[in-house]
């Protein structure tokens, strides 16, 4: 049986490592690392390298998109003071998921999804709504599974520790780092 093709947008290895094992059972998975929001660049590089190392060792195709922080920063002008899970975050979810959906449509994927929704610091309902709207627009399916169910975030955190993954202490953008809320 041929498995459907899934583009799996990820933000980091700790949030995606365990999820990928689950997804690989039902899908032909390609990992897509596109996170222009991550700041500073050294943090972007740490996360990208950690994820690429893990997924290549698992023989999972890994796509690394160049960081385009300047465009992301323009997108957030005027929203710097927004709280976590506020307007800035929703705009960021949309920006990254739109890039993933565009890539998925251009490369004949059946589905796309994101590891963002496993985090209790993210608005999973907003992520699902955005993903489903983009899926409809690009004639794709958005895998909107609840990755938090059955203590998913805790299990992913434990898996990350077992793997020795570098684990960041903030979501990624300079505003979450400076606000110290994550």
Briefly summarize what is shown.
The chain has 182 residues and is α/β, with parallel strands linked by helices.
Structural features:
182 residues, Rossmann fold, alpha/beta, globular, 5 strands, 7 helices, 5-stranded parallel β-sheet
Outline the structure in words.
This protein is an alpha/beta fold and 182 residues long. It has one domain (5-179): Rossmann fold (3-Layer(aba) Sandwich). Helix content is 48%, strand content 12%. It has a five-stranded parallel beta sheet with strand order 3-2-1-4-5, sandwiched between helices. The longest helix is centred in the middle third of the chain and has 20 residues, at 87-106. The radius of gyration is 15 Å and the shape is globular. The N and C termini lie far apart (42 Å).
CATH topology: Rossmann fold
Per DSSP, the total helix count is 7
Number of beta-strand segments? 5
Give the name of the CATH superfamily. Answer: HUPs
Helix content: 40-55%
Radius of gyration: 15 Å
Strand order of the largest sheet: 3-2-1-4-5
The CATH class, by name, is: Alpha Beta
Specify the biggest β-sheet.
5 strands, parallel
- Overall geometry comes to globular
* Helix and strand sequence: EHEHEHHEHEHH
**Structural class assignment:** alpha/beta
Average pLDDT over all residues: 94
Q: How many domains make up the 3D coordinates?
A: 1
How much strand content do the residues show?
5-15%
CATH architecture: 3-Layer(aba) Sandwich
N-to-C span: 42 Å
Give start-end ranges of low-pLDDT stretches: none
């Amino acid at each position: 049986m041929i498995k459907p093709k899934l583009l799996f947008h990820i933000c980091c290895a700790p949030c995606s490592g365990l999820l990928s094992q689950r997804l690989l059972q039902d899908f032909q998975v390609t990992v897509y690392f596109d996170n222009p929001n991550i700041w500073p660049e050294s943090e972007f590089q740490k996360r990208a390298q950690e994820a690429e190392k893990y997924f290549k060792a698992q023989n999972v195709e890994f796509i690394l998109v160049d960081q385009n922080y300047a465009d992301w920063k323009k997108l957030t002008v005027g929203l710097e003071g927004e709280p976590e899970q506020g307007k800035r975050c929703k705009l960021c979810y949309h920006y990254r998921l739109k890039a993933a959906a565009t890539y998925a449509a251009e490369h004949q994927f059946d589905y796309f999804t994101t590891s963002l929704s496993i985090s209790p610091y993210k608005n999973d309902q907003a992520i699902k709504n955005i993903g489903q709207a983009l899926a409809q627009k690009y004639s794709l399916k958005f895998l909107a599974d609840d990755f938090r169910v059955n203590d998913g975030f805790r299990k992913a955190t434990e898996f990350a520790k077992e793997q020795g993954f570098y684990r960041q202490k903030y979501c990624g953008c300079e505003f979450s780092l400076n606000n110290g809320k994550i």
